Amino acid sequence: MVAKKNSHKNDDLLSAFLKENKKDGIRVFVAGGSRGGHNPVYVKEAYTLGKKIVEMGFKLDFGLSNAGIMGAVAKGVMDAWNEKQHSSNPDFPIQGITTEEYYKLYDSDDTMLKHINVIFAKTLEERKRRLLNADFVVFAPGGVGTLDELAYDCVAMQDGLLQKKPFILYNISGFFHHLLEFLKAISNKGFSDPVPFVVVDNDFELEVAFSLLKNRYYKCEDTNGVYDNTRQLVYELPYFIQQRLKTGRDVVDIIREVCSIRGLGNDEEKNALDNDIETAYLEKEIERMYDRLAKTGRDTSVVSYKLSRLKRRQGKL
To answer: What pTM value is reported for the model?
Structure first.
């Protein structure tokens, strides 16, 4: 009888998440570069990010740009919107927040701008705050503006000025490798609180993370609850990625299976699930560590090359 009661409770909980997240649509704030970078993979994956946003039923909030990474994200949203036969409704699910000064930099005849709900903020500070009204944040590759956004968001949430929410780092081609190492270093040295970034390395992992945020993420007013839930999501994400790859099942079905085992399963089944989740997490972390070692090796060779050039130049003085 207890098992059945727990089962109904888990089913009701999952249904509540699904119902809550379908109410007004989940808004995702994407921060990224107004430039596209030298490697075309950045723009390609940014475009895919935009398409994934529509496929998940999310809405896009961004700082308004028709070029670079941000332009590619918006283009992806628009194309996916049309593919879903929403062409009869040209109002794309995009909200651009900017200042009047920045808006004047764009061509008023730009097709993209005509279909975006543009909201004007009086200052850049207000713009940042309005953007963070979204349900969660995705950071794509970008320059100093993107770093400024990330630093501002971290500080504002750390100091309690803004509600904590999940951060996704879209780590295309290891773009955020150095930043992640730096953030861990300043946290380990006691200069900041740890931020549980949800790191995804490709569009498949991004889709799984999106599905978990849509169907399983606990919306909490309590900041500690948000932090704990995000950490749990970070921990369990590799398991869901692994299961999705192995079985091809939908993430919601895997969620139901996990809820069922935790609610109805015996000790052996629960322990097996916990071990599988732990194994998947460790395997992913080890994979990332090897990747970082490879990148560190390349960094060392670059530094060595530059040092040799400087010494040769010094020898000519």
So the answer is: 0.81
